[in-house]
Design a protein that fits this description.
The chain has about 90 residues and is mainly α. Helix content is about 75%, strand content about 0%.
Length: about 90
């Protein structure tokens, strides 16, 4: 496979795919924070959620509304889960 073939096989990074990727990263960060609710992990998850919110806002003008709405709904679930987390006391 030549480099050109490899480059063309990558998913194009349009605003919707960027938003979906960002939401997936936020979901992973929230899941990690749920497993290990330290202040640092919760802060990292909050940062990832904020980035995903911005990505969704940028993708909101795209013609692929169902994909943007689905990403937004997934993010809302993660935001709700994140808000319920309290940092565990470190020993």
């Amino acid at each position: 496979m030549t480099r050109y073939e490899y480059d063309t096989s990558l998913q194009s990074q349009n605003p919707v795919s960027q938003a979906q990727n960002s939401v997936e990263k936020a979901h992973n960060a929230v899941t990690q924070a749920q497993s290990h609710p330290t202040a640092q992990m919760i802060e990292q998850a909050e940062t990832a959620v904020e980035k995903a919110e911005r990505s969704i806002a940028q993708a909101g003008h795209d013609e692929n509304k169902p994909a943007v709405e689905q990403a937004d709904a997934q993010l809302a679930e993660d935001q709700s889960a994140l808000q319920s987390l309290q940092p565990m006391e470190e020993e």
